[in-house]
Amino acid sequence: MAGIKIGVFGAWRGNSYIRLFLEEEQIELVAICDKNLNELDDLENESDELERVAKFTDFDEFLSEGKKLGMNAVFLANYFHQHASYAIKCLEAGMNVISECTAAATMKECVELVECVERTGKKYMLAENYPFSTSNIMLNHLVESGKLGTLLYAEGEYNHSGTNEELARLTPGKYHWRAWMPRTYYVTHAMGPLMFATKAMPRYVSARAAHSDLLYQIRDWRHNYDGCAIMFCEMDNGMIARFTGCTAMASDYSRYRVVGDIASVECGGNIGSDMVRLFYFNHTKPENEENESFIKADIGEPDESAQKAKSAGHGGGDFRVVQNMIEYFLNGVDPFFDVYRSVAMSATAILGWRSCLNHGENLLIPDFRKKEERDFVRNDDLTPFPDENGNGITLPCALPYNE
Predict the structure, then answer these.
(1) Which of 178, 226, 227, 389 is the most buried (most CB within 10 A)?
(2) What DSSP element (H or E) covers 377?
(3) Which of 308, 261, 315 is nearest to 284 (CA)?
(4) What is the pLDDT of residues 251-262, one digit of tens each?
(5) Which CATH architecture has domain 131-303+340-376?
(6) pTM
């Protein structure tokens, strides 16, 4: 029998993972919840396998009835800014949690999530997939090999633009989170690969955002009209890092680079999705090495796993996240993005936006492993996101701008 009996909250965002869960013998998909009944109907129309899976439109019923079905884990694929509160409900109900998006949307939620994991003893991980693309894993291997020397600097860009029609389709409703999300908040795809490659945690953040006239033209329904935001962090290993949030206008590709005092390594961009570039200066180049090498991203996976990864999304990252979950939930192998690293990324995004609003002010990112540092932000619930009635906003979602 499957050791992981999982439920999925959020049928639209969770759809690609639902497919992967159905392929794993160690996972049984027992329940799916989405407030939109059409999303549930669409799933059933796509696959006969999903007809036997229990469907719910109410989250509390999903938890209680799912528990009767043996559900012991929940995959959260709900709205971007609402993961922490639902994760806490699941943990307190005795479920292990894998969260698809940012861990928390306020500093207060970061504290509450960490303390709930510690209190319940249940397992929590973030399903951040970009670090586990084939090229980013290869980048990580090269960093870990020591070829780069002392790590000095890392940079990451995540770019995701779209036409007005695409943006409208992705913003179903006046108070949908995508219409209000500041440009720093979706940080995981740019920052996650850097943390994974360097094993460093952020300690200070300074950030700036830039206004976009093009996005300002649709401000009546997309109020986050900044085109990009750049965050600059001092990391706990002494290196520095520069990365974006989810930029709308900065470039046509996503890319990652780690620089040491001997060599640098990079992937993405013009290098291609399955190659990594290693570069040495003349005075640091070892004998029998080239100044510049383009290395095929081969991470030594068994053929079957490599093929499954290739057919999954995000350069194989989705498949590998599921494998990490299996190893964690069944065998106790700790994931890289545990609750502490997860909330550190969320806090970087949240405080990065505060920095943007104050002309790049340098802000301390709490170490959430330490209670005394949590206490400084325990009651900090400032947010740019409205509730479903348009209330609750305590921060602007874009830079002040006068026409």
Answers:
(1) 226
(2) none
(3) 261
(4) 667 899 999 999
(5) 2-Layer Sandwich (3.30)
(6) 0.95
